[in-house]
Design brief:
Structural class: alpha/beta
Largest sheet: 6 strands, parallel
Distance between the termini: 50 Å
Mean pLDDT: 96
Order of helices and strands: EHEHEHEHHHEHEHEEEEHEH
CATH topology of the largest domain: Rossmann fold
Strand order of the largest sheet: 1-11-8-7-5-6
Bound molecules: NADP nicotinamide-adenine-dinucleotide phosphate
Shape: globular
Number of domains: 2
Number of strands: 11
Helix content: 25-40%
Radius of gyration: 19 Å
CATH class of the largest domain: Alpha Beta
CATH superfamily of the largest domain: NAD(P)-binding Rossmann-like Domain
Low-confidence stretches: none
Strand content: 15-25%
Number of helices: 10
């Protein structure tokens, strides 16, 4: 078997078109403010790509740089100023925060209606109630890719002939694994969530018709972990060394093995990440509507 690629681009392009149309209809330009208080290269790169994505659809972007040793108070003051600024539609706090600073406490300071990363407890809580408005972007991306794959997702209990999907989510982080599991649970999937304490990972993953992997460990999921014909959504992003001494980005799934077993698989890069960026733009529009 050779799996079909479940690419992020078609979904992302549709979201971006919807965002552009929404901005034209709103008649005002939304603005994203990203707070960066770190020298971390990954966070700096992520901030740059957010800026580019905003520019592409006509959303203003402001990078609010603070020193890498900024205090809790200084970052809280910045968040308070952005909360109070009517020109700012969305706020993102880039991770990591400086050592000794409580990142969770900072996330709670963001006005939930401007929390376009979906990290405020109010927005994470709304996911439990089945809401995707300001849900974490990556979880929304996983959900959109699952939908695009055509796996059966039900809005109401299925009739006797229907059968809820068997799903396995590997990784239970607050912004990826847990909310992805909840969004799928809401569609009458039977969701198993695996984590570092899971005794027999393969026993769970091989039962899944939809396998979502969000760990951050290259090579964790091999062909033998996948049920033949399953849909695989690989969230992981790992930089690995290649034989010629260079490096490349791979997911958590051994792609060459997985394509021989799965029916569909997201590429890395070009899968979940592409849709996640677009979901951030969608969240900015949702935030603008909430604030209107
Ligand atoms: P995270 O907060 O580090 O969470 C990783 C999760 O994996 C944790 O729940 C951890 O469990 C679990 N885990 C660790 N080792 C495991 C193992 N051997 N078996 C099963 N579970 C294991 O990371 P994250 O933010 O969720 O991100 C996960 C990956 O997705 C990373 O590679 C990240 O770069 C990538 N990511 C991609 C996107 C995108 O748009 N494509 C967006 C966000 C993140 P414990 O907590 O119990 O240790």
């Amino acid at each position: 078997m050779s799996a079909t690629l479940l690419e992020g681009a078609p979904i992302a392009e549709q979201i971006k078109a919807d965002v552009k149309a929404a901005i034209a209809e709103m008649g005002r330009t939304p603005k994203l403010a990203a707070i960066l208080a770190t020298d971390n290269k990954g966070a700096q790169f992520y901030a740059q790509s957010q800026g580019k994505a905003c520019e592409e659809v006509g959303i203003d972007f402001e990078l609010c740089e603070l020193p890498a040793d900024a205090s809790q108070c200084a970052i809280e003051d910045k968040i308070a100023a952005l909360n109070a600024d009517p020109a700012v539609t969305g706020i993102i706090l880039l991770m990591p925060v400086p050592e000794g600073v409580d990142g969770r406490a900072l996330q709670r300071c963001i006005d939930p209606r401007k929390d376009v990363d979906g990290v405020h407890p109010a927005n994470l809580g709304a996911v439990v109630q089945g809401s995707t408005t300001l849900a974490p972007c990556t979880a929304q991306a996983v959900f959109a890719l699952a939908k695009a794959s055509g796996v059966p997702l039900f809005d109401a209990p299925m009739d006797a002939a229907g059968k809820g999907l068997e799903v396995c989510v590997v990784g239970h982080s607050e912004i990826v694994g847990k909310p992805s599991a909840l969004l799928l649970l809401d569609k009458f999937c039977t969701v198993t969530v695996c984590h570092i304490g899971t005794q027999d990972l393969k026993a769970h993953t091989t039962r899944a018709d939809l396998l979502v992997v969000a760990v951050g460990k290259a090579g964790l999921i091999k062909g033998e972990h996948i049920k033949p014909g399953a849909v695989v959504i690989d969230v992981g992003i790992n930089r690995v060394k290649t034989e010629d001494g260079k490096s490349k980005i791979v997911g958590d799934v051994v792609f060459d093995e997985a394509v021989e077993v799965a029916s569909q698989i997201t590429p890395v890069p070009g899968g979940v990440g592409t849709v996640t960026t677009a979901m951030l733009l969608k969240n900015i529009i949702d935030a603008a509507r909430l604030q209107a």
